[in-house]
Amino acid sequence: MHHKNSIISIFLMGGFLALSLAGCESPRPPYPDNAQPTQPPTQPPTQPPTQPPTQPPTQPPTQPPTQPPTQPPTQPPTQPPTQPPTQPPTQPPTQPCATHSVILNNFQFMPSSLTIKRCETVIWTHQQPNVQHSVTSGQFGAGNAGQEFDSTAGQSFGNLLNQGNTFSHTFNNAGSFPYHCIVHGGGGMVGTITVSQ
């Protein structure tokens, strides 16, 4: 009997609890036919903002300051001092060297004495017929006879002057130059040429 009362008590208590729970629930509006139960919007998981990896600031490579190439100072070219053109010393106009004539005739030189200048020439002309003569420098009979000039060209009596022959000599040195005929000099056929400066 006691067991049966216990079951009834449990049953009654269960019904009371069910009614109590039913009273606590609020009535839900009916869903439409096609309505789906509302799902709360799905939120993507919150990701922390991605930060790019921190790079140290890039420094350009340090270049040493560029120095312009050092040029040595430009020196103007050295010009030698200009010399005035050298003028040769003025020479007086050159006069042509004169020519003088001496005649061999009548066993004498005509003129027997003659003064000339350096570079001038004396021409002796034999005009005496049938007689041979010479024009030989130096004193008659002297050892140096014929050293300055000699019409016989050192052949003495083998090369004497005949009528119409000539002999010439140019005097380049100043001084007095005696001369003679080797055939007739002992008889006074002598002469002198004086050459001035």
Q: What key attributes describe this structure?
A:
197 residues; alpha/beta; Immunoglobulin-like; 4-stranded mixed β-sheet; rod-shaped
Model description:
By secondary structure, the protein is an alpha/beta fold. It has a domain at 99-196: Immunoglobulin-like (Sandwich), CATH 2.60.40.420. The protein has 1 helix and 8 strands, in the order αββββββββ. The protein has one helix spanning 2-24, and strands spanning 99-105, 108-110, 113-117, 120-126, 136-137, 166-171, 175-180, 190-196. The strands form 2 sheets. A 4-stranded mixed sheet has the order 2-1-4-6, with no helix packed on it. Strands 3-8-7-5 form a 4-stranded mixed sheet, with no helix packed on it. The longest helix has 23 residues, at 2-24. It starts with a helix and ends with a strand.
